[in-house]
Amino acid sequence: MRAGFRGLLFWKILLGFWLTFLLMSQLLWLSFSVYGKHHEPPENLAARRIVNLQMTSAVSVLQRGGMEALDDMMADWPANDRRFFSVRVMEKPPQELPRSMLNRDLRPGKFPEEVIEWVTGADGRQYQLRYDVQGLREDSHMVGGHRSFLNVPEPMLFMAGGGGLLFSLFLAWNLTRPMRQLREGFDRVARGDLSVRLFPEMRRRHDELSVVAQDFDSMVERLAVLVRAREELLHDVSHELRSPLARLQLATGLARQTPESVGQSLDRIDEEARRLDKMIGELLTLSRAGHQNLTHEQYFDLLGLLEAVANDARYEAQGSGVDITLDADRHGDYTVKGDANLIRSAVENVVRNALRFSGQGQQVRIVLQQENNWLTLCVTDQGPGVDADKLSSIFDPFVRVNSPLSGKGYGLGLSIVRKVILAHQGEVSAVNGKNGGLELTMKLPHWVA
Known about the structure:
With 449 residues, this protein is of the alpha+beta class. It is built from twelve helices and twelve strands. 22% of the residues are buried.
């Protein structure tokens, strides 16, 4: 089912809010009903005040001025009030009735149909004053009231119910519209369209849904970067594999055409096979380093790992005359949590890269320091360094520095270094040294027991 007014969430929100409104009206009616059992209703209070006022006035006038004075006072009453009040001369009042029933009979919870008062007038005669309370209440619409539905008067039901329905309709539309936009956005991403952006359309909301739209845009941008990087990597890999494969085909062709050069051709084939094996190994390391979930995590001493790498580098540097030094506090703690093999591969790539760009008599310096919660490893050489405009790209795959000392690498070493360090929640950066050469810094989280 398409999203929108037919969406299930829309109707859930609409009916949910509207039924909540109706339920609240019933709860309010119930609360007032329960409250009214312990307090006098407003209509009873009004009727009691009217009856008390008129009966008290009539009794006082009749006792002091007699029937004529009472008739004069009643002449000033509205016609509706005179309809419910009556006076009758009695020969003798019943002994079983009290002198006054006014306040007692109109108390909360017990409202009589009529009020009777026995009075001795100024002329000495007995009078019965009677007030038709039931008639007064019916005439004033105090009994029965307006028609109602679900204990809600019809005018209030039409206005409040209609208003509640419109409010629920607007709220349901306001909440389901961004949901529909998100669904359409995810649908476009699933079809491969990574150009969709939602935050420009939802930024005016200034609520949690606009934050979700912003996170959605960030996710799509990250996916676009990853897809573009994958495509570039596949293009570079295919390009790099084409050259050794072409040389292999050339060597096999020469071997068939000139049998006397079979030995030389086989040597070329072996060399190209070693290059392919090396490249494939670096690609596998690069792929493995790109996974954030490291499967071989362990606790190891980073200083011990650096000593092993430095010893191997010194052995390789014997022919070139490059000095390899390692500076670190031998009594410090350098515990790291992670994959020791990947860390060693990254450090070897950096040290060998520095060794490759160093000449006779130069020095490669390895410095390990503890800074707050980080272990900082800095590798510095005295080579030619890197052009400033290429510093930001030396960590990209298949990027080589044009130098006669660069050798025949594939430009994957520093890319492996960056992915390994990032997989261990670390940081890596490279700058040209003040006195020449390249200074590459790696930071790893220091694990403290």
